[in-house]
Amino acid sequence: MNSPKTPSPEPQSAPLWGRARHELGWQGLTLRVPLEWNPGRVAGKRDRGDLRVDDPDGARLELRWETPKNEVNIEKTVENFVATLAKQAKKEKRPFTSLGDLNLVSKHKKGKNRTVSFGWTSDNSGSAPCGFGVAWSCPHCERVVVAHLLGQNHEAPRRVERTAQEILQSLDCDGHGGWDMWAAFELSLDIPEEFPIARSQMLVSKLDLEWIRPRPIGLYGWGRRAERLRVQRFPVANVLLEGKPLDEWADWNIAFKNKTLSLSRREDEEASVNGHEALVYRGPVRDPRARISVLFFDLILRRKTPQTRVLVWRCEESNRIFAFESEMSLVNEHIPGDVLESLACH
Ligand SMILES: [Zn+2]
Ligand SMILES: [Zn+2]
Known about the structure:
The chain is an alpha+beta fold.
């Protein structure tokens, strides 16, 4: 597997409307949005799912993707979508004007087939006075992607259109060299495509994301485990720690509270992440049956499957605590290091 090739960070484009931007990444889709926009709802998988991006006042952007079996008529898809919106407005006795294909993003958007954009306006009596969007089919990831950006009632449609143009232009669906960037709530890291997301808890008190590549099916999977990557982030480190040292906090909150792993802190091991000294925990799964089959095959094959490792560090700059858990087969042992290299905690 290749190492992640994070594209060199784009020069911070002059923020439109004086608002800073940040990057969001989800299921291989990436885009640049205002800093206060973040995932509000996520559903589905890489081949089919949706993501709603919210700002503090409500929904701002709906992203939907699907992997159709047959070729899809994008023009028709967009037409149907706009017709549904029109019908809804009629039911609510609101005006509705379709603005047609506005060329919000270039028709020949890099590597995409048939890019169609759309726009509509209504009045201020409903949940949104206007909306702008784009749809395309992508020959690389084989998905159809639809993005729909909503205006809010205090915003003029003209202004929303320009914001939409900028944001939709930044939208892409292709990852880079087999790696996807996952980014939300100021956390950003690269994960290999073959590791589907299995947990995405995004709370004010804790961010907890986990990717699991299932154990191979059949003979090949014997004596092997599922491979996992998990990152947890806890805010306001100084409040959580209450003046106590990090190891005391982590022994309880990361090791003791872990229901699947029997972790212990390795005093003899050192690690550093992004310039921070990290505590190292290791340990086997608590379930003895899962342990035995791996041990058995390790013995026969004279290999040593690496134990699950958890690194815990405090980032003073962001006042957060991070825990990074990895469980890998021998051949993929380099992956956690590559992922950590892509993770910027501050
Ligand atoms: Zn794509
Ligand atoms: Zn940091």
